[in-house]
Every structure is written in structure tokens, then in C-alpha cells.
Amino acid sequence: MDQEPVGELELSVGYVLKQVHASLRSAMDVALRPLDLTVPQYACLELLGQSSGLSNSELARRAFVTRQSMNLVLRRLQERGLLTRPDQAPHGRALPSMLTRDGQAVLRRASTAVRTAEKQAFAPLSPEQQLRLRRDLAACVASTPSS
Amino acid sequence: MDQEPVGELELSVGYVLKQVHASLRSAMDVALRPLDLTVPQYACLELLGQSSGLSNSELARRAFVTRQSMNLVLRRLQERGLLTRPDQAPHGRALPSMLTRDGQAVLRRASTAVRTAEKQAFAPLSPEQQLRLRRDLAACVASTPSS
DNA sequence: GACTGTATGTCAGACTGCTGACATGGATCA
DNA sequence: TGATCCATGTCAGCAGTCTGACATACAGTC
Fold it and tell me: Could B134 and A16 be called an inter-chain contact, meaning their C-beta atoms sit closer than 8 Å?
């Protein structure tokens, strides 16, 4: 390793944030591959596991993708029998998605796998530091104009 | 189990990290649009501005994309006359990229725009908190197996 | 010198996610 | 009631990124 003078980019919060995000994303990919799940698919399952009956648009917002992308994710998961959507909307146009029994089972396994990967990624930080990190990040979100 | 209105996902460091990353990415997109630059293109310029003569592969690693993707970025920037690459490699196969005068000018404007966006994104945090956040994140990177 | 291993640049194909657009259902208000 | 606006689901097209592959250039070993 050549010892360059630490660039200015290393001093940018955004750059380091991107770095950690990339590393975590990669770790999640590896952890989810055996379950044949992508990160967006996992995110969708996790969101539904915690808030059953969310609509496509609502899932998209919480997973930080567009409605169109989430639509494809939902379709694929529905084909695999991991979730169900009613043919007709009970109110308005929103179609509430629900996990099937299989979906819940897959989610349980995926959740533990991701949790392990995440734990490992933040292992250098003590529990107190992790809590502090989460709070600092959450503070930034709070000021963000909701998309 | 806290049954707060906030879901369990909100308690996940990874989720909040993703949230902040998405918000920052979006802000950077908006800030760079007037300059007709994408985020990867800006990243490339910024990296070259701080370490002139980096190769395609090295830029790719530091920008967290593949060599192939960075190759397209470099080509596009070269077409716009923002950087130059020698036709022949001075050593090995690595082609060192250099910013042109125009490239340096665009970088200056882009850099201030991005810096403003980043400053705004992390505005809720005091300078001390931002420093702490950067250190915490950097600690996570240190343990990551380098890609 | 020949062989092996590693790193780089580049091409081709597939996949993912996005933007733009349209139709539908509901709420609001004159 | 009719008009307007907003949110949702979905279709089509396009740009960006990735995986896989190949040829090339250097360093190390025999």
C-alpha cells in the first residue's frame, strides 16, 4: 500500500458515508444470495413483515425506489408465492400486500442473515457508539424534506 | 420489545444509513444537474482533482463502481473535453487521466455545489457531531476487507 | 528464455432502475 | 352536480451498471 497523503475526500462526510453504504450493500448481497433474494426484495419483505398491508407506492417510498421498480419487485415475489395482493382495491386504487406463510418463513431466514451481516459491518463500534451513530444519522433524516 | 409507533427498521443502523445516503444522493443530483454532471462523473472529476493521473481501475475502486462503468464515465468526460488520456500507456497498461483546464473549471463549480448540498444535508449536526460521525463511519470502513 | 500470476483496458450481453406517460379512484370545492 | 387536483397502479422506452470474457503488459519463478 502506498502511503499517499490523506486526500480531502477522506474528510468529506458524504464520501465516507458512501463507502460504508457500499460495503454494507455488498455484505447484504452476499448474505442474501443463498436465499435467492436481492436487497430490494428483502427490503420489501421486511417492510411488509413489520407493516402488513402496505401499498406498492408506500413500499416504494420506504425502500427509496420508484413505484415502477417496486412494482416489479412485488410481481416477482408474488410469482414466487411469497406475498399476495387482492385483485380489487378495497379503497381507492391502493392494493395492500400481505406476506404468505412462505413469505414469512423466507423473511425470518433473510432477516437473521442480514442482521448478522449488519452486525459484522458495524462491529468496530461499541454498542454505545452504534446507538450514537444511529441517532446522528436520524437527526439528518429528520431535517430532510420527505420525498 | 418497544412497541413504539416507530417500526423496528427505524432502529436498524443500516436502514437509517440507507436513508441518509439516498437523501444525500438526491441532493447531489439536483445540485449537479445545472452543470450537466452525474454523481459518478463528479466523483471522477473530484478524484482526479485531488490525485491527478489516476488510472481507470483506480478511479473505479475509489468511486465504488466497476472498471467498465468508470470506463464509460471517462469516455464521456473525455468527449466533453474535461480530461485527457494518453494514447499509449507510459508503464504497464494503466492510462493516467488528467483534467484539462475546462475540467478544472467545471470541477470547481461542481465542488462548491456539492459541498453546499452536503453541508445542508448534515446541517442538523454540529461541527463536532459531524466530525464524530465521520470518525465513527471511518472506523467501520477500516475493518472492511478492501474490494 | 519460458511459464505463471496478477493487473489493466475493453467489448458484448443482460439486468436493474429511472423518467415519461396514461387511466383510474377519491377528495375537495365552487 | 361538475371541475379540479392528487395519489395510485401500470405500460413503454431509455440510461446506467453489472457480469463474463478476452487480449495485453508487467513481475516473479524456474
Answer: yes
